[in-house]
Design goal:
Elements: H1 8-17, E1 20-22, E2 25-28, E3 40-43, E4 46-49, E5 60-61, H2 62-77, H3 92-102, H4 109-127, H5 131-143, H6 146-173
Helix pairs in contact: 2-3, 2-4, 4-5
Length: 174
């Protein structure tokens, strides 16, 4: 895992350089919310941030940003078949924690709560999702995904059943 995320160390160091210690936590300005791995480039060993579309109204924990990036990566890899085994797993919190640990970052329950609050608020403001629903979905994906998997499977079965019933109705109508 360490080798896989080695390129992210320059990203982390660039954010650490812009952080300050407050109550035992490294914080960065909310302007760094969108300084994701996908919005960063390594040039001559230094991290360059691009595409600052989003900002947060408050300071952000550096650990929360690490969690946000790891979570987003896992989300993007979810449907790919050929993913490194260390990045697989339906329960996302352990994988997220391992990614953070590979960067030398220790995560806490507080960091995951802060992440889920911020991510749910973003979903509410940007995508119009209900905050409570977004929080629940994030928690389920992090801790206990089986209800989501069950619901997804149920939706597929309902769509299949609808198609079969429609075909039956179409045949009987002829």
């Amino acid at each position: 895992m360490d080798a896989l995320f080695a390129p992210c160390r320059a990203w982390l160091e660039a954010l650490r350089a812009r952080s300050h210690l407050q109550n035992g936590r490294l914080l960065v300005d909310g302007d760094f919310l969108d300084c994701n791995w996908s919005n960063s480039y390594i040039v001559n060993g230094r991290c360059v941030f691009v595409d600052h579309e989003w900002a947060w109204h408050d300071k952000l924990s550096l650990t929360t940003l690490v969690i946000r990036n790891a979570y987003s990566l896992i989300e993007e890899l979810e449907d790919l078949g050929d993913v490194a085994p260390v990045l697989r797993g339906k329960v996302r919190r352990p994988v997220t924690t391992r990614i953070a640990r590979s960067l030398g970052v220790t995560t806490t329950a507080r960091d995951f709560r802060e992440f889920s609050k911020i991510q749910a608020r973003i979903a509410e403001v940007v995508f119009g999702e209900r905050y409570a629903k977004a929080r629940l979905v994030i928690w389920l994906r992090l801790e206990c995904p089986w209800p989501l998997l069950w619901l997804q499977g149920g939706k597929r079965k309902i769509r299949l059943l609808r198609r079969l019933l429609q075909r039956l109705v179409d045949r009987l109508s002829v």
